[in-house]
Amino acid sequence: MSRRAGVNVPSVRMVDALEGVLGLQWIDGKSVRFLLGGGAEGEEEIEESAYEEDDILEDQSEEEDALVEFNISKDEVMQKIGVEIAKMHKADVIHGDLTTSNMMLYHPRSGLSDLVLIDFGLSYISSLVEDKAVDLYVLERAFSSTHPASENLFASVLQAYERTMGKEWQSIGRRLDDVRLRGRKRSMVG
After folding, report:
1. Measured at the alpha carbon of residue 34, what is the angle toward residues 155 and 9, in degrees to the nearest 5?
2. What is the number of domains present in the chain?
3. pLDDT score of 42
4. Where are the alpha helices (DSSP H) in the chain?
5. Residues 112, 105: contact at Cβ < 8 Å?
6. 154-169: per-residue pLDDT in tens?
7. Entry pTM
8. Which GO terms label this protein's molecular function in UniProt (predicted)?
9. Residue (of 147, 185, 155) closest to 47 by Cα position
């Protein structure tokens, strides 16, 4: 469904229903989590307050090196994320697990420069504004827990999302504000 809507996702290469095997396209690249200095997959996430100033500067240097290798800026990555999520939501596909670990950029040697959304294991179809807002909120929380001081990055994602969604953004944006309030109340209460 996502692929038909123009969302960049790995293509299905092989299905063996009897054996329960699904073969997907190999993405020659790195996760956005890695490229933004969030560490490799499986590494524990570190709360922002646990970082020393020197650690933050070192992480920024490493992520800049990775982005230079991929010939892309942080802002361009955020724009790509916002556009891909908007295309997915326009097709009424809810990812269910939007994190920077589930987004990959092709390595430049592949000849492609696209951002690819992966891991649709929790995805479902819904036209509800609430579900789209919750999907965005999950990504916002993932940004804040994995990438220290990332508020401006997520704001850039939302700007690209808003441009791509057009009129639909107004209701989703309002609902995202409601979801944020509910999330804050829940974290304050326990």
Report:
1. 75
2. 1
3. 57
4. 32-35, 53-69, 74-90, 129-146, 151-165, 168-189
5. no
6. 999 999 999 999 999 9
7. 0.83
8. ATP binding; protein serine/threonine kinase activity
9. 147
